[in-house]
Amino acid sequence: MKIVRTTAEIRVLVADARRKNLSVGLVPTMGALHDGHLSHVRRAREENGLVVVSIFVNPLQFGPSEDLDAYPRDEAGDTRLLAGEGADLVFAPATEEVHPHDRATTVTVGGLSEVLEGARRPGHFDGVCTVVAKLLNIVAPDRVYFGQKDAQQVAVLGRMVQDLGFPVEMVVGPIVRESNGLAMSSRNAYLSSEERKRATALFKALQAGSPFAAAGDFAGASNEMLRVLRSATGVEPDYATAVDADSFGPPEPGGRILLVVAARVGPARLIDNLLVEVENT
Ligand code: PAF
To answer: Is the whole-model pTM more than 0.90?
Structure first.
């Protein structure tokens, strides 16, 4: 496995692989890898001849009062894990390599970027789209891997890929959970063991809301999820609602229904979601 710092070098190595007729899979990450990320790397390994994992803590997607400086970073640990999964290239560029100081372009997906996470974190999805567009242009993969844990990010990026015609297949891996139901996230590193137990309230809320949503009672689902979150010690709910999984607007007849929750637990703001199996009446 090779660690690559520059755009020029990654382009050369990917071009070499293409000459050998290898397909290319890209797993974009911000590091602090956990089993959720590694599940994407394993899948990418099965499906591609060359597996590239990017590790880049993207400053554009952090608001001024967010945790950019505190965001967990462990490149040595991450590269050990990636070597164990058989990744070929780790692209770990410096900030200036990806976002030169005179950068003048921002990629914005209208509409679904502006609700829920987008409304609470202004500019967040612009930052995500801008860096992912750049990574797709640099690596030019056949497949790019994201996690369903960040459901709104997946919907926004899917729209960007479709609208801008990126020639890439987006592969979305399922949420990986701890045995107690807590969705794996790099931000779980901020939690004490007591807070980790408290944070299981997010998944419990989703499970409690699911039968209501499955029966078409979306207001009931939201109320039930908020009730579960509010009754948990040390959990401050932000939102709990049912949306259409693709548009992030209200659930649509025949569409996929997604329950989404966000809450603060100790120092971390956590999100989770659950796709609802709709009852056939
Ligand atoms: O999901 C993440 O880790 C980040 O938002 C991503 C997609 C790597 C872009 O920085």
So the answer is: yes
Atom of ligand 1 nearest to the CA of 150: 1
pLDDT tier at 161, thresholds 50, 70, 90:
very high
Going by CA atoms, what residue is nearest to atom 8 of ligand 1? 29
Q: How many CB atoms lie within 10 A of CB 26?
A: 27
Domains of the chain: 2-173 (3.40.50.620), 186-273 (3.30.1300.10)
CB-ligand 1 contact for 28 (6 Å cutoff) = yes
Q: What is the mean pLDDT of residues 115-136?
A: 98
* CA angle (93, 10, 168) in 5-degree steps: 100
Q: What distance in angstroms lies between residue 29's CA and the mean position of ligand 1's atoms? A: 5
Active site residues: 37
Say how far apart CA 200 and CA 33 lie, in whole Å. 20
Whether 29 is in the pocket of ligand 1, judged by its Cβ within 6 Å, is yes
Length of the chain: 281
Contacts of 2 (CB under 8 A, 6+ apart): 13, 88, 89, 90
Verify whether ligand 1 is closer than 6 Å to residue 128 (CB atom): yes
Bridge partners (DSSP) listed for residue 265:
235, 268
Contact between residue 40 and residue 1 where contact means Cβ atoms under 8 Å apart: no
- Ligand 1 centroid to Cα of residue 132, in Å, is 8
Phi-psi region of 80 (alpha: psi -120 to 50; beta: other; left: phi over 0): alpha
- C-alpha closest to that of 237 among 210, 212, 272: 272
Q: What is the pLDDT of residue 281?
A: 55
Taking the centre of ligand 1 as the mean of its atom positions, its distance from the CA of residue 28, in whole angstroms, is: 6
pLDDT reported for residue 169: 98
